[in-house]
Specification:
single chain; 160 residues; alpha+beta; Alpha-D-Glucose-1,6-Bisphosphate, Chain A, domain 4; 8-stranded antiparallel beta sheet; 8 strands
């Protein structure tokens, strides 16, 4: 691979449509990214001491399989997110429902990960949809996805 520099994560929310798009280029191949988002490896990179830390990941990575993450917020409160895998096409695409247990009013949304091989690495595009009229949640998740993709990029860089 050439020397692709890991780019900064960028996200934009379309609150009127209740969805957001986030993207980053990462200097590792798609299969490496796919493994980082669909295995216990996720606990090694999803979070930081300044915000929250994911401490446990479980998942049955197949269509209809369940997944769940548990973690601790910066102030020590536990949290969890769970869902179901709707589409699994390694290492190119992963679609999953997203149910944040800390916010019952948010409902269940859908996260689509698209991993595209580019020269020197992978373009990661996350589409998070289904926020409906929850405009603040949609906008807040855009900021959150920028952080998450930056953590993934840093982890990938450290592992290569």
């Amino acid at each position: 691979m050439n020397a692709l520099k890991n780019s900064d994560a960028k996200a934009v929310a379309d609150v009127t449509e209740g969805m957001l798009l986030a993207t980053i280029d990462i200097a590792v191949p798609p299969d490496r990214v796919f493994r980082a988002i669909t295995s216990e490896e996720l606990t090694q990179w999803w979070g930081s001491d300044e915000s929250y830390r994911t401490t446990k990941w479980t998942g049955d990575v197949r269509v209809g399989g369940a997944w769940r993450t548990d973690g601790i917020s910066q102030d020590g409160k536990p949290f969890s997110v769970s869902g179901e895998f709707l589409e699994v096409d390694p290492p190119h695409k992963l679609v999953q429902t997203w149910h944040p247990h800390w916010d019952p009013s948010a409902g269940v949304t859908t996260v689509t990960w698209r991993l595209t091989a580019i020269e020197g690495g992978t373009r990661v595009v996350v589409r998070h949809a289904g926020f409906g009229a929850a405009h603040e949640a949609c906008a807040g998740h855009a900021t959150g996805w920028e952080r998450v993709l930056s953590w993934l990029s840093r982890y990938s860089r450290e592992q290569s």
